[in-house]
Structures are given as C-alpha cells and as structure tokens.
Amino acid sequence: MNNVKNLFHKISYAQYPLMLIALVYALMPYFQGFSVFWTCINQALIFAGLGISFSTLQDTSKTQNEVSRKIWESPKKGRRALIFIAVSALLMLGVGLYGFLLAKDGIVKEVAFGMLMLGIGYIGLLKSAIEMFENHRSDRTAQSS
Q1: CA-to-CA distance for 48 and 73, rounded, in angstroms?
Q2: Looking at the predicted structure, is the pLDDT value of residue 143 above 80?
Q3: Gap between the Cα atoms of 70 and 65, Å rounded
Q4: Please, are residues 30 and 103 in contact by the beta-carbon 8 Å criterion?
C-alpha cells in the first residue's frame, strides 16, 4: 500500500510543469499581442485546473512549507482557508456552467470550459485541504496525544 501512496505522490509532481504551461499561456498575450488573449486565458485555465488536480495527489499527512503548516495547524485559519477554497470552487463551477450552458459557440463558451476545469481542480483541492486540516489541526493533535 505504501508503494501505491509513494507512486501517487511522485505523480503529483506533474503539477509543476502543468502550472508552468498555464503561466506561459497567461503571459503569451504580452508577447504575441492581445488578439490571442481569450484563447490563451482559456488554455491557462485548463492547464491550471489540471495542475491543481495533480497537486491533490500529494501526501496530505505532511505539510509542504511553513506557511501551509501555520494555516492547517490553526483551527481558525484552517476553517477560513476551507471556506475560501469552497466558495472559490463554487464560483468557478457556477460561472463555468452558466457560460458553458448558455453561451453560443465562441470564446465565451471556451473560457467557460476553462473555468469548469479550474473549478473541478478546486473541488479536488478542497478534498485535500480538508484532509490536511484534519491531519494537522493543533487542537485535535493535542487531544489525541
């Protein structure tokens, strides 16, 4: 079982090239002209959603950095972070679904698809964040010791 967990943790590193690709697409209009803005934003949203989805394969029993540790150990900060992630996911999914279902073919429908992809990534992020919060809360780890 540990081998499978380690395999998924290693696969999670695919998040970095995917987020780099998203960044390249986000910056591309500055170099190619803003006539490609919406197409590039759509591609950036799609790759960011994929990157966030891959990041959820990380080991939630460990924090990745000091900022993360401070957030997930604090019951108040952790709850705020979970609320922020949940609201963000709902907004992205809502805007994405609205645009995707109601827009005629064109760039609005494409960008709405990108928003949906990012929202789906945030749903996975929310699940991982909940696990991080459960694993690292200082008020729970102190009680179980």
Answers
A1: 27
A2: no
A3: 9
A4: no
